[in-house]
Write a structure and sequence with these properties.
By secondary structure, this protein is an alpha/beta fold. Helix content is about 40%, strand content about 15%. It is built from 8 helices and 7 strands; from the N terminus they run E-H-E-H-E-H-E-H-H-E-H-E-H-H-E. Strands 3-2-1-4-5-6-7 form a 7-stranded parallel β-sheet, with helices on both faces.
C-alpha cells in the first residue's frame, strides 16, 4: 500500500463529525500521525474509542471558539512530542449539528444576533484563532500547510426550496462564514509563503449523512453527477491537499461538489 501521508502529522479541528471522522480514519490508513480535537461529548468519545489504542493517534478536547483553549493547544501538542505539519480548520456549526442539538431554524427576520455571532465565532473566528496560533508556534519553524474547510455555499447562493418541509435548513450565517474562510485562505497564502507554508481551501458539496430519499432527490437535481457525495469522496481530495503532492498549490479553493458549482 502506498502511504500517501507518511511523514505527515495532521491536526484536525472538529474531527468527530461525519467528514472529520472520515479524515481521521483515512489519514491514519495513509501513514499519517493524526491529532484529533472536538468538543467534549459523544463525538469525542467515539473517536477515542475507535482510535485511542493506535499509537499514531492523539485526541485533545478543544472549543475553537475559546481563545484561551486555542492559544494553548499547539504548545500542549508540542510538549507531548508531536510536531504538526498539516492543520485542518474543519470545526463548524452546521444546520445538521443544530438539528441534532434540537435547535430551531428561525426565519431570517427572527434570527437572533446572539445566534448569528455564535456561528461567526465558531466558523470564522475559530479558524482565525487556530491560524494565528500556527503563526506563533509553527509557521517558519518547519514546512507546513493549512487547509480551511468551506462549502459549496461559500461562493454560491443556497437553494432554499430544497429545504422546504425538512427538519433542517440552510441558515445565513453558515454561508457567510464559509465565504469568509476563503478570504482568510488567500490572505494567509501570500503572508506565509516566504516562511514555507501553504494555505488552501476545500469546498465540499452536499455529503450524504442518512438524508431522506426526498432530500437526496432534490439535491441531486442541482448537481451534475445527480447525487450527494460519499464522505470518502471528499476525503480523497483532502488527502491530496494534505500530501506532499500539493506542495505547489497555495491560495486555491478546490471544489469537490459533483459539478454543483459548474452549472
Amino acid at each position: 500500500m502506498v502511504e500517501q501521508l507518511k511523514g505527515r502529522t495532521v491536526f484536525i479541528t472538529g474531527s468527530g463529525g461525519v467528514l472529520g471522522s472520515t479524515y481521521v480514519l483515512r489519514m491514519l490508513a495513509e501513514g499519517a500521525r493524526v491529532i484529533g480535537s472536538d468538543l467534549p461529548g459523544h463525538r469525542a468519545e467515539a473517536l477515542v474509542e475507535a482510535h485511542g489504542a493506535n499509537p499514531d493517534f492523539r485526541f485533545y478536547p478543544l472549543d475553537v471558539a475559546s481563545e484561551d483553549e486555542v492559544t494553548g493547544i499547539f504548545q500542549r501538542i508540542l510538549t507531548d512530542g508531536w510536531e504538526p505539519n498539516v492543520v485542518l480548520n474543519n470545526a463548524a456549526i452546521t444546520g445538521e449539528l443544530l438539528m441534532g442539538a434540537g435547535q430551531p431554524f428561525p426565519d431570517f427576520a427572527d434570527l437572533k444576533v446572539s445566534d448569528w455571532e455564535k456561528t461567526l465565532r465558531t466558523n470564522l473566528t475559530g479558524p482565525f484563532l487556530v491560524a494565528r496560533q500556527m503563526d506563533r508556534d509553527i509557521v517558519g519553524k518547519w514546512p507546513c500547510t493549512l487547509i480551511n474547510v468551506a462549502s459549496m455555499y461559500a461562493l454560491n447562493g443556497a437553494h432554499h426550496r430544497i429545504y422546504e418541509g425538512m427538519p433542517f435548513k440552510n441558515f445565513s450565517a453558515y454561508g457567510v462564514t464559509k465565504a469568509g474562510i476563503h478570504g482568510l485562505t488567500v490572505w494567509l497564502a501570500g503572508y506565509w509563503a516566504p516562511r514555507g507554508a501553504t494555505v488552501n481551501t476545500i469546498a465540499p458539496g452536499a455529503v450524504f449523512n442518512n438524508h431522506s430519499e426526498e432530500f437526496q432527490r432534490r439535491v441531486g437535481e442541482l448537481i451534475m453527477l445527480d447525487r450527494m457525495a460519499k464522505p470518502d469522496e471528499i476525503a480523497d481530495a483532502m488527502l491530496f491537499l494534505a500530501s506532499a503532492q500539493a506542495g505547489y498549490m497555495t491560495g486555491q479553493m478546490v471544489n469537490v461538489d459533483g459539478g454543483f458549482s459548474g452549472w
